């Protein structure tokens, strides 16, 4: 299979930037579109430092169809899209749901329309375990398999579930329309990647998660507590029916998650499966208290926290059953929770200002030495 050119929407964000890095390291050409709402262009420099290659970047909004058209016009060799661009905070989505639908759902429609006009036929969609909602409402659905009924409990999850339906309808329509014209239509494909909780940083210590405002995920919040930017972690609820009363999540290292996007893209281009959903997770759930303990161990001291009430839309257990991805994509999470905590602490401790500072000289020297 020849590698091609890939458009990565939201490619300067946390997961998008690591996926762009994985694509470049696999010799794909990468074009990024991102409006930099919650990210930094500096990650492009870090990608280049690590891979020796630099993705092209357009600063544009995913809802701007003419701007998307121009990108595809400029790069007629793009044959696939990995779609991350979205607002992504569960709590915030309950406060401003219309904005979440405008960006996440309307933005996806704009992207699909532009892709179709330019005959770009493969899309890997960044979905979420939140589409499942509370899987404990069914018997034998923990860890969660892909056939678990969809039932999101918050607006963010509903935008992801809606996008899955839109993408499915679109790809199936394109295939059917092609068959009516006597063509195969097999070139139209979509991967719906439902991933669990991304964590960690690049082991080099020069690339990681750099949220522009308040982080919405547990580990970046803990990291801010560890460097003194935050007084303590708020634990939302300790009255769940888990072993210690806190919610259970499946934490997957960002490098494993990025690799999952690469293998899913290759699968679409090789196997032409139509629309297929895959869970990307470890299959191992950890409670919030276990996470605090694991990250505190990486830091070398206990980190302060306070238990407060549950958040609206949160569920007891989001642990993946990754068997389908293991078997079909030949993908499996290789790195551990401990790896994620150690890598995140290395990044946070040495880059307290994130991308708003130069990477540590000793890490750059190690990186250069490793390439010789």
UniProtKB/TrEMBL annotation:
<keyword id="KW-0299">Galactose metabolism</keyword>
<feature type="region of interest" description="Disordered">
    <location>
        <begin position="351"/>
        <end position="372"/>
    </location>
</feature>
<protein>
    <recommendedName>
        <fullName>UDP-glucose 4-epimerase</fullName>
        <ecNumber>5.1.3.2</ecNumber>
    </recommendedName>
</protein>
<dbReference type="Pfam" id="PF01370">
    <property type="entry name" value="Epimerase"/>
</dbReference>
<comment type="similarity">
    <text>Belongs to the NAD(P)-dependent epimerase/dehydratase family.</text>
</comment>
<dbReference type="GO" id="GO:0006012">
    <property type="term" value="P:galactose metabolic process"/>
</dbReference>
<dbReference type="GO" id="GO:0003978">
    <property type="term" value="F:UDP-glucose 4-epimerase activity"/>
</dbReference>
<dbReference type="InterPro" id="IPR001509">
    <property type="entry name" value="Epimerase_deHydtase"/>
</dbReference>
<dbReference type="InterPro" id="IPR005886">
    <property type="entry name" value="UDP_G4E"/>
</dbReference>
<dbReference type="InterPro" id="IPR036291">
    <property type="entry name" value="NAD(P)-bd_dom_sf"/>
</dbReference>
<comment type="function">
    <text>Mutarotase converts alpha-aldose to the beta-anomer. It is active on D-glucose, L-arabinose, D-xylose, D-galactose, maltose and lactose.</text>
</comment>
<feature type="domain" description="NAD-dependent epimerase/dehydratase">
    <location>
        <begin position="6"/>
        <end position="281"/>
    </location>
</feature>
<comment type="subunit">
    <text>Homodimer.</text>
</comment>
<keyword id="KW-0119">Carbohydrate metabolism</keyword>
<keyword id="KW-0520">NAD</keyword>
<comment type="similarity">
    <text>In the N-terminal section; belongs to the NAD(P)-dependent epimerase/dehydratase family.</text>
</comment>
<feature type="compositionally biased region" description="Basic and acidic residues">
    <location>
        <begin position="363"/>
        <end position="372"/>
    </location>
</feature>
<keyword id="KW-0413">Isomerase</keyword>
<comment type="pathway">
    <text>Carbohydrate metabolism; galactose metabolism.</text>
</comment>
<comment type="pathway">
    <text>Carbohydrate metabolism; hexose metabolism.</text>
</comment>
<dbReference type="GO" id="GO:0005829">
    <property type="term" value="C:cytosol"/>
</dbReference>
């Amino acid at each position: 299979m020849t590698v091609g050119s890939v458009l990565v929407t939201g490619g300067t964000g946390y997961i998008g930037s690591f996926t762009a890095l994985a694509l470049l390291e696999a010799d794909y050409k990468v074009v990024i579109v991102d409006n930099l709402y919650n990210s930094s262009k500096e990650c492009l420099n870090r990608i280049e430092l690590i891979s020796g290659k630099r993705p092209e970047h357009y600063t544009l909004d995913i809802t701007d169809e003419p701007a998307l058209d121009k990108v595809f016009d400029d790069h007629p060799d793009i044959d696939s899209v990995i779609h991350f661009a979205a607002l992504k905070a569960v709590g915030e989505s309950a406060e401003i749901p219309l904005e979440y639908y405008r960006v996440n759902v309307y933005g996806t429609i704009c992207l699909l329309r532009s892709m179709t006009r330019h005959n770009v036929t493969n899309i890997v969609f960044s979905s979420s375990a939140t589409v499942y909602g509370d899987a404990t409402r069914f018997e034998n659905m923990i860890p969660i398999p892909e056939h678990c009924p969809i039932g999101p409990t918050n607006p963010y999850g509903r935008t992801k579930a809606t996008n899955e339906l839109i993408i499915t309808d679109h790809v199936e329509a394109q295939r059917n329309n092609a068959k009516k014209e006597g063509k195969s239509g097999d070139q139209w494909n979509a991967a719906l990647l439902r991933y669990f909780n991304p964590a960690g940083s690049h082991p080099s210590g020069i690339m990681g998660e750099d949220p522009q405002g308040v982080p919405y995920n547990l580990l970046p919040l803990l990291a801010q507590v560890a460097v003194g930017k935050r007084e303590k972690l708020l634990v939302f609820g300790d009255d769940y029916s888990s072993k210690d009363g806190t919610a259970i999540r499946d934490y997957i290292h960002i490098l494993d998650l990025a690799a999952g996007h690469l293998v899913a893209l290759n699968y679409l281009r090789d196997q032409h499966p139509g629309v297929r959903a895959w869970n990307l997770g470890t299959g191992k759930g950890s409670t919030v208290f276990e996470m605090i303990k694991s990250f505190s161990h990486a830091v070398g001291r206990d980190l302060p926290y306070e238990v407060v009430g549950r958040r609206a839309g949160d569920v007891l257990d989001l642990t993946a059953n990754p068997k389908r991805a293991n078997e079909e994509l030949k993908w499996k999470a290789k790195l551990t929770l401990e790896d994620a905590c150690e890598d995140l602490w290395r990044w946070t401790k040495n880059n307290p200002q994130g991308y708003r500072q130069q990477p540590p000289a000793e890490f750059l020297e190690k990186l250069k030495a490793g390439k010789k």
